[in-house]
Amino acid sequence: MIETTAQYDRYSKKVATALPGHVLANLLNTMTNEPYTFLDPQDEKNLSLDTDRMKVGAFEAHLTPLSAADVKQLHELSVNVFWPHRDRDLALFLEVGSGYMARDQIGRPLGSAMYFPCGDDFAMIGMMMTAPRLQSRGTGRWLLHHVMRDCAARDLRLSATRSGYWLYESSGFLPVATIRRHQGIVRSVYRPDKIAGVTLRRGTLVDKAAIAALDRIGFGADRQTILDRLWEKSTSVVAKRAGSIVGYAFFRNFGRGTVIGPVVADSDEMAMHLTASLLADQEDTFVRIDTPVRDGKFTAFLSAVGLGMFDTVTEMRVGPHRRATDGSVIYGLAAQALG
């Protein structure tokens, strides 16, 4: 069984030169139970990425910019690929991002792709979905080409599923890290030992500027617009040392329950304190957190409170690696699409 992106990559490169793409896709679909995307030779021959119209299998597809009116069709796509997003989650993405939807002749959704600008020189790419019946037909590459063209002057980052890894790698993205999705029903939450000189309290409006400044350090770009919208929908907690905010965490409704993120802290201990504070009254509820942190105290804490590791994706980039790796770092993503 192929279970990780690295295993998939090693295996697929061994056989890729021996099998046509559509045959390899069928093989990997059987082995991994995931819809891997490789172009059928005839589709690859006919694929023109710059156009806003393309023949996809038996369908005449066309691209249109996404708008707030597309929530229902985005949700339809997300259900088809077994993603947990609810209408409220997708409405938030449409408020802070842009992108495209591919539709057939009668307006049915075939695929989507979005990007989320962070300042003038960076963007996250996400919500890359293709209807299962049309995967391996080039729809994903077509959509990705259009969002990358819109973001031509920006560094980029995304979270790649195993099924999308090859598409992103062949489009110039480089792997950065593994993002671990922890989730589950919260058990009794124990409080970690106090950190000398650090106090926690609920976030208030006067903290927004300091949170944004700290986030720019950890995230590596200015996502003030995204943070402002998250603030409106979240409960927040901040950590202070010597009068300055040195860590923060948000908590909001998402998917089948709630999500913790973003989280920025300068140590496992601080991240544990921030998270424990938000989980204190969440026993027996479903919570999720996506973290780039490797095995250690923080991930052990998550497992201990009932949030076991459920799945992984690969963080990938175009341009320099901008997310901080020491000091104040990201312990929890706002969402896989938002970083």
Report on this model:
The chain has 339 residues and is α+β, with helices and mostly antiparallel strands. 32% of the residues lie in helices and 32% in strands. Helix 4 crosses helix 5 and helix 10 (268-279) packs parallel to helix 11 (297-304). The longest helix has 12 residues, at 21-32. Mean pLDDT is 87; it is low at 1-46.
- Report the C-alpha radius of gyration, rounded: 20 Å
Give the DSSP E fraction (strand runs of 2 or more residues): 25-35%
Query: Which consecutive residue ranges, at least 5 long each, have pLDDT under 50?
Result: 1-46
Largest beta-sheet details: 14 strands, mixed
Shape descriptor: globular
- The DSSP helix count reads 11
SS-derived structural category: alpha+beta
End-to-end separation in angstroms reads 29 Å
Number of strands: 14
Could you give the order of the helices and strands? HHHEEHHEEEHEHEEHHEEEHEHEE
Helix content: 25-40%
Q: Return the average pLDDT rounded to an integer.
A: 87
Quick description:
The chain has 339 residues and is α+β, with helices and mostly antiparallel strands. It has helices spanning 5-15, 21-32, 41-46, 71-80, 87-96, 139-150, 165-170, 208-219, 224-233, 268-279, 297-304; strands at 53-56, 59-65, 98-103, 109-117, 122-130, 155-160, 174-185, 198-202, 234-241, 244-254, 257-265, 286-291, 308-318, 329-332. Strands 1, 2, 3, 4, 5, 6, 7, 8, 9, 10, 11, 12, 13 and 14 form a 14-stranded mixed β-sheet that branches.
What distinguishing features does this structure have?
14 strands; alpha+beta; disordered N terminus
